[in-house]
Amino acid sequence: MTSHxxxxxxxxxxxxxxxxxxxxxxxxxxxxxxxxxxxxWTSRIDLGQFNHLFLPLQVELGFLNIIIAMGIxxxxxxxxxxxxxxxxxxxxxxxxxxxGTFLFLAIFIVYxxxxxxxxxxxxxxxxxxxxxxxxxxxxxxxxxxxxxxxxHSMKADDAHxxxxxxxxxxxxxxxxxxxxxxxxxxxSSQESGAPASSDGGIAPGSPGKSSGDATSxxxxxDDATGGDExxxxxxxxxxxxxxxxxxxxx
Amino acid sequence: xxxxxxxxxPVAHHFDSREQEFDAAKxxxxxxxxxxxxxxxxxxxxxxxxxxxxxEMYIEASHHLSWKMGALNTVVLITSxxxxxLAVRYAMLDDLPKLKxxxxxxxxxxxxxxxxxxxxxxxxIHHGLLPGRFFTAEGxxxxxxxxxxxxxxxxxxxxxxxVLIGIFLLVWLLIKAQKRHFNSDYFTPVEITGLYWHLVDxxxxxxxxxxxxx
Lengths: 250, 214
What we know:
B: mainly alpha
């Protein structure tokens, strides 16, 4: 760095900072390439294989992958901002603007999540949260697949909501019935008639206690049981029986 | 230098000095970049919300993206950031040929990025992996997959638009450099366009793992 102090003296006369030395830029570039390799590599491997001590990890490894990928991305961002964008040599106020932005971004995302993650605790009427016609044709080879009601986190509801005993029995009797679009008719409005009665069904307004929770952990089981439900992929399913905070208007 | 002085923009009358003018332009650019981060932040927020609702769907749908193309584009964009940083350095050092060389290299890498992106988009369109109701691909086990594809197209599309704008800005810089509008005393457009270009790189640094690698 001493070699370029001359140029600092030379150039700070007119400007806030001296030209960043070539070596620093080159090292930054190489570091970014290495970090890119690292983030690709860590995402392609199963991190569990490094658990040589067989630690009983409480976090899912997929979650660990996200943490690592975001950590590397943040490190790369810091390097780019410090050296390519010159914040390291710049007036501190510009750094303040940059870091302050992420503070506001964090407020934005955290407050939004405070809504979307806990909507299930607020709406008793699950129909308010559900219902869009998905254009996705599910893979019938693996069964009825996973409807949008399943994977989002309504676990909060299990601890909170009051289960309808009738519905709970129905679900226990025939867990796969939740995928049947005609199934809900026989309890809700008696409109759909014959096919509903043979299939059984569950009532709309049920937060999907047992079924909703099981699907988040046991999607493989759904594949197995859902094999005969191949017809259930029509997007006309109103799915009042299953909770989704999906906004309307898709 | 003295011959350049005629073409180099003089200090605007409302600034005391060249340095004050430079710092004011730079602070303005940083506030603009802050706005850009928050602008993209809306999309990142949408990404986080849907990911919190449908984590398994994200993993399945992201496997339909080509992580190799994403990684290639990451390397291309990082390299372009490096040449851009070199361009700023050589502008400050009054090295006009190297400034122009690095601007040209940056433009070429930016175009490479867009070409890779073009092939990537064509492949998605060919397979019917399109946002919303245009989604016609089959073989998914989650019926929310179109949401991920929609986020993919909007996030990378908005980023690609920024790359295109960056290419125009870089061409403009190259023309101005050719007309000898820059010297070590005045290179503000090079500096703040460089900041913009690095921000485009920064956003891609986050888009790449979030969309391709999960």
